[in-house]
Fold this protein.
Amino acid sequence: MARRKKVYKDIQLSGIADKGLAVGRDAEGMVYFVDGAVPGDNVDVLVLRKKSSFRKGIVSQFNSLSDERVQAKCQHFGVCGGCKWQNLDYPAQLKYKEQAVKDAFKRLAKMDAEEYRPILGCERIFRYRNKMEYSFSYRRWVTKEEIDTGEDIDFGQAVGFHRAGSFDKVVQIEQCHLQDELSNTIRNHIHKLALEKNWSYYNSRDHVGFLRNLRVRNSTLGQWMLVVIFGEDRPDEIEFLLDNIKQNFPQVTSLHYVINQKKNDSIFDQDAHHYHGTQHLTERLGHLEYKIGPKSFFQTNSYQAEKLYGLVKEFANLKGDEIVYDLYTGLGSIALYLAQDCKKIIGIEEVPEAVNDARENKALNKIENAFFEVGDVKNEFNNKFVDKYGKADLIVVDPPRAGLHADVTKMLNQSDARTIIYVSCNPSTQARDIQLMDNYDIKILQPVDMFPHTHHIENIALLEKN
């Protein structure tokens, strides 16, 4: 017989944690991570996971509600799982994100910065994303409220977002507030047309189905790109759908499609077929223009990206004669942003398509002192690389959420660069890495909120050689 889960009473929640969980303690000081609550709530917790140092669970009962609670704007809040903190007042979101960065460095890096700067919040807390990815599923997610009615339930096709923890079911999204409204209009139009045509949606269990994913991008210059991903190669239906999009949405300036018949959703190893309009989307950040292709990585919040790059430029404090490395350069967005202020800048990126984009953007902006290498940073960033390009005065790193490979951390610590700027979307792994770089001191920590209503935090660390 399974052991009955225990409810723990009177847990006062005081902060935010990873994946949108609230964190708090009981009277004895035990830490609780709780789903479904916000900081300031007092709750009883049904514990689902128990360790010696913490407990994790869901709300069994609310005893009192936080003064920082607000009414969520989205009709899908609490179901789709995308905006975990939409029911938390935005100034409070910033307060707790800023505190999370400080806590990560004190707990993991076991060191303080000389200066903790206040978090830089977003002016636009809705309609701020320039890219959304939707999934088509043969089976939609059904809510508990629907089940409790006792009525017959239609489990039919849906297009939207995967419910957290459910790989084969999708929450049907009518309106998402994160991208401009045209994104909703296009998605809903395709869904309506697909139902009329009786097109199948992807079944991730059996790996069959015609419509699989939809990628919608837009820029602050008013351009729109659509990439429709199909699970089956049906030329007549593909042509019909793409022509329909052309006719109904002249705002779409770049239209592509991908036929992805492998088991995972990634399209980096698939051919993107250009169907209509321009090959690229164009975005402007500060003094630069960037070409963005159907498979390009680019900061998802253009408005905050410009501010983020401005801060990196400020911290770099370049005089014009420096050699700069930009590790994990992506399509060279930071490298190109800094290029006019240094002698030369060299980026490393393991995705060949991203490096091609970087080189195209270098030519587009008539930049001659930026160079890009294809390869995994842990393999490319070594003494041979330094001999080829010269010792760096400044190194910028912007790795994935997992942080730096141990070999990269070691190489950075031994690099003798005057300054390192570590940009991270995960302050915990950032703090872990910096703790190992004992040749450097933390001068400034600057959090930047790129994604309101989510648990994600971007943080810039300025390190100087001690």
Q: What stands out?
A: The first strand starts at residue 7 and ends at 16. The CA atoms of residues 313 and 338 lie 6 Å apart. The mean pLDDT is 94. The chain is about 25% helix and 30% strand.
